[in-house]
Amino acid sequence: MKTILALHGNPGHPEDWNLLKKILPAGYELVTVDPHDDTWTSLLTKTSDKKILLGHSWGCYRVLKALKPFASSIEKAILVAPYVKPEKKISGLAQALLHLPVIGDALLKANHAKAKDSFFADLIHPLKSQDDSYLEIVNGRLQEWHLWKKTAFQKMAMQANPWSPADVSAVPVTVIYGAKDKVSDRKAQGDVFKAYPNKTEVEIHDAGHGLIWSHAREIVKALQEESKTMNPKIGYFPGSDERNNVISYMEKHLREFPDRIALTWARRDSLQAWDGNPMTPIAHDKITYKNFAERINSFARGLLDIGIQKGDRVIIFLPMALDMYTAMFAVQRIGAIAVFLDSWARSHHLGASAECVGPKAMISFKMAFDLVDQVPEFKSMPVRILYGPGDKFTHKFEDLLKKDPSPVAAVESEFTALITFTTGSTGKPKGANRTHRFLSAQHQALSHVIPYTEQDKDMPAFPIFSLNNLASGVTTVLPALDLSAPSDKDPALLACQIINENINCTTLSPSMLVGLSRFCKEKGLQLSKLRRVVTGGAPISKDDVKAFYEIAPQSDLWILYGSTEAEPMAHIEGRDMLKESKVTDPEIIEEGVNVGHISDDIDFKFIRIKDGPISLSQTDWDKIEVANGDVGEFICTGDHVCREYYNNPEAFKTTKIMGHDNRVWHRTGDLAYIDSDKNLWIVGRVNNAIERAGKYYFPVRAEVLLKRMDFTYRCAFLGMDDAKLGQATHAVVELKSDIDPKSFDFVSAKKEIQRVFEKNKIPVDHIQFIEKVPMDPRHHSKVEYKVLRDQLKQPGVVIG
């Protein structure tokens, strides 16, 4: 016999469950309880059998509050039309008045008389009172104002002790919504359940808030069904647990498909001998998941043997190759913290990383160790693991590959697994704190947008995307590029690997995508095996999308909008981006870039442009949010949104907002708006918004216009201080490499730019040509505006 403890709503009554009791099948006992205090919780531990908790409306809030402290006594929870957080709060003043003996009662009576009938209609919608005799009883109870008083005071108690992320439990939860609910807003209430690792959500299209009366049989079905999974996801287990460690993905693949190829990469000798023809194959080496796991396990043992322990920070400064991933996964396996530096990292990145994390060890080449000898922050680092030939090391990489196995370290879900750094293009690089749970959540979010099949062979140009590949169990081809030093040969190398390695999926930066499209068009190549390409990291224009489809018309092209702190935040398929817009003149550009549908795994808001920290202890959301559809800074929160920067509370203040419910909101720094079709449009960056003569202008639209000029290779649109205007607008252009500046007609080019900008009603005060527009070192796709501003102040920089 399974015992069900049923908690009614507020207002509500134990008899609300009578209809369900009548149709409950054999083997179940339904016990109605009074949820207004905690007395009922004693029933959870009265006997050793696990109970099923069933809640309706506000009763669901009481269920959620009990899940974590009584998890060992609960089999699962069924939540019907949940009302787990107030949608309209009772203000502090109103609460004070309601507690006054005479005034409070008078206010409640007046509100009761005004609202009781409409509340009843909303409560039972789409039912009518005559549909069931019990609904007349419900209506009769609601005529009593004392019940209204009890409801108000319970709501105040709910506000005083609200649901918070600390209440999240791994107990399986099934949530049943009514699509026609007029009491609970699904989005507002459903936000709570995004944090629950083991949930099932069901929507009944013709039901409202009173579905315990209209759809009792669906509730019985939910009671009888086994939960989809009785185990939380990797990274979501309570306490310290081996299954929270992200290396569990590799352990899972080792059990399920040990002989599948995990990684394949170009052989150095073959790459050096390659003739530059994309049709000439480059020999590749490969490793199975079984052998890869053994190599990780072996290196992890070596790290343990030299004293690397749980929580130690280990800098990994290696190119995107087999042993970069060997090192990263081995560090995570033993519970140490991998600190990843991109291969293009500059000397100030090294110093900033060491200052931030206080490393115990670094794994890198001789050249890197020679460099850090000049960086004071590395003086105290005791362990130097040399990869390749050289001196000045404490250990060599190959010597740490031991035969003995290493255990998987148990970690808490929010224990740091990986630290990656922002580019630092707008200031000091910040270390994003990627916990084991964060990495698992990011993998799940990416899987919702770009799922893989067993047959896929993927080539990701970003190291972090390779982590998602390996978590997915897909075969990953490492690009034969030096990401730290882009070359004119890169498009040919990419085409060669795609064609000869039978790659059907790839992830490329916008600059790589543009280069690949241009190269293939020039060479008359069609990349017919591709089924999906993913790009992101910087804006991409419709012209770039059209150019890609010319060389791979059968492929999907997904443009992801994301950042170091949150990836993905939104996504759009290229064909949707190209759909006909309201603008018919080809020389008119829409305001911003459409990045598509916002990820279902995040919540978002748009706030006013504001420099400096934002504290909700000093203001409220309604004071800082912009009107729906207006441009504002895009902020978001969710499991795969980085909550903090490692050892950097100052960065938290300027880039995060702590919500009243303890949720951390990330300030992206991107200015955006949402259109009537729920698409997200990015118009620029907060720190690059140009305030000219009291009006804001944004770079994205202007830069798309500049890129369309047949003489433009790279470009920028930015503001510079101006005594009269506040900021003057500057259009800056880098000429294509095959154009000779000595013979180029700068005057005609400037006239054409001026004409097109006037047509788009974008004021341009200065048009300047320079030798090279500075781009970000990670993707080579985003302008470094701060560097450019400084350059424009130097004599001799402008060439026309």
UniProtKB/TrEMBL annotation:
InterPro entries: AB_hydrolase_1, AB_hydrolase_fold, AMP-binding_CS, AMP-dep_synth/lig_dom, ANL_N_sf
Domain AMP-dependent synthetase/ligase positions: 251-646
AB hydrolase-1 domain boundaries: 6-221
Single GO molecular function: CoA-ligase activity
Pfam families: Abhydrolase_6, AMP-binding
UniProt superkingdom: Bacteria
Transmembrane segments: none
Stated name of the protein: AMP-ligase
Organism: Bdellovibrio bacteriovorus
